[in-house]
Amino acid sequence: MKTVWKRIHAWLDENAPAGYGHLRPGASADAVDAAEKAMGLKLPADVKASYRVHDGQGKEPGLIGGEGWCLFPLQDMVK
Fold first, then answer.
1. Which residues neighbour 72 within 8 Å (Cβ) at sequence distance 6 or greater?
2. pTM, two decimal places
């Protein structure tokens, strides 16, 4: 997943630097486990790995299509 995020970072640097600046640091393994437990499900391995790189975005604009299309932090997914 780190390789995938490197490609995403490169694209964002070139095409959408404003949205890229709002990516949050990665979530801990404990935070991912807690989110799974709160939601009563197991996330796919690649989703967990992605959240370990970036725990969503802090605010809009989103990564895809502008407003309303942001990468949710784990805590917002649980809600």
1. 56, 57
2. 0.81
